[in-house]
Amino acid sequence: MIDPPLSSTVTVSVGDSLTLSCTSRGSPPDTFTWRKDSGPIVQSTSITTVEHTSVTVVFRANYSIDMVTLDDSGAYTCTVTNPLGSDSEIITVDVMALPPSVAPNDFTPTTTTSTSISFQWTPLSEEEANGVVNWYIISCNESIVVNVTGTATMGTVSGLGPFTDYSCTIHAVTGSDGPVSDPVIVRTPEAAPGPPVINTVTNISSSVARVTWTRPTVLNGILATYTISYVINADTRRVTVDYNGEEMQSYNITGLTPYQLFTVTITATNGGGTSGLSNEEFGRSSETAPGVVQFTTSSVSNTEVNVMWSTPSQPNGIITAYQVIYSVYDNTTTVKSGLLGISRSTYSISNLKPGIPYQVLVVAFTSAGRGTENNIEVFFSQELNPSKAPADINIARLNFTSVNVTWTPLTLIEAQGFPHYRVTLMLLSNSNRTKRQTDSITMETTNSYVVFHDLISTTAYSAVVGVRTGSSDMFEDADPITVTVAECPTCSCESPPEATCDDSSVNAVFIVLFVIAVVLNVVLIVVIIYLVVRLKKSSYSPNITGHVYDAVELRSKDDKTFSSSDAEYEIPSTGSMDAKPKGGKVDAVKLQANPAYQVTNYNKP
After folding, report:
1. Domain annotation covers residue 532
2. Rounded CA gap, 283 and 201, in Å?
């Protein structure tokens, strides 16, 4: 029986000495044999007797190696055999090579991405490695380690972070780790940042909303800008703002319409690219008063009208109520309905006065207040016949052949509609009537007066004033009154300022007007004769230079006139010289060619 070895594994370095021992108990012992890796038999270098008793004998067989090499690594099996049988034990020998004496040379980064760095180096010789290099180990920031084979001259470290400084080294491994190279500091490039996070979207006004956000938790570089994208009715609008260096940032979205719904997202950008979209959030601008309500009216009866409307094209918020407001046309008294629910789109106005025009409007309400009121419609209840005839009829003579008939107009309520008046002037005495004149004259009007012309002088007339509405052709006539054109009525004489009821005054006015007309005609004839003579004297030839004149009149721009009638002037052929009188002094008057003067009169000899 073989005693178990003290250790089943023995580790030695190249160049060390090694002794393997195998101890057995038995009698009689026969032989000890050694095998390496099931290879050829290796003889023991020595066999000794360790203990001898009457029962057993203890033998020890040693196998020794004076200088171990790498080839001596392996599993050594010790087998003891005698006539009664055999037994064996295995001892594993690990021979460690010497570590390299130097680190790899020229350790240099070649390619860098945001997540990896590639290196190259000069491999160690066998003398530098003290054997054969099993591995090269690259380490970055002491936490990221990459093993490459001993024959490699390039390696890549992956799984790095963008925009990060790394301190990287390399060493070779033979039997053990060799010296570590000097560290190489490498920064990975920027990569696109993570998305920002929108915190709030709040309305500031009916046209402005504010969005606030938090910068990305993963920057991957230096943030440069944010791009805010907001969508309104499928129309995407974008605006880019600079990163302000703060963790939180905000921006006011402008140009919104009241109660405008929109969605907003944000991206962040650095030197490595643009992030993905942030969370999408909804926003809405504030409400304002609604716009105009479009409506129509329809008469139900002569005292009732229906008003029908639709939702404003610009609600500017959530419509909360409607209100119908109406009043008699041109009347300050108004009637307002109560606030009508949003489900209402019609309203009946009752107890109206027949034939009276009313003005009506419909307004809408939001939480921001009352809407626009500029859409006013005028409607009419059904007209009836007037309730009374015109009153206070008066006839005033304007001149010998004209009279003015006036009356007090009916109110809309009295007329029960829009009043139309008919005035009939009937001839009572026709002794002076000509063939072209009729017994009666009728005129219709919506005014409260009618003027009749071309009447017969010194003749009596009777005037009848009637009234109707649009619902009937029948007139409600007042009692007739009478006037004689030749006489002033005792009631009054209502005439324009230039008219008078005094015949002598009228004749005097006509005489004065005739005299004035004659005087004006005489003055006009004198002015025309003067202008004709003046125009004839002022005419001159377009070319007045090079001639001799006995009189010259030049007018300057300021209307100052220079003239002479007792000296002859010779006008030079060039306009840059002064006019010189023959035998006289030099006259400092410029000629026609000088734009500052104009020849207004001359006489040729």
Report:
1. no
2. 6
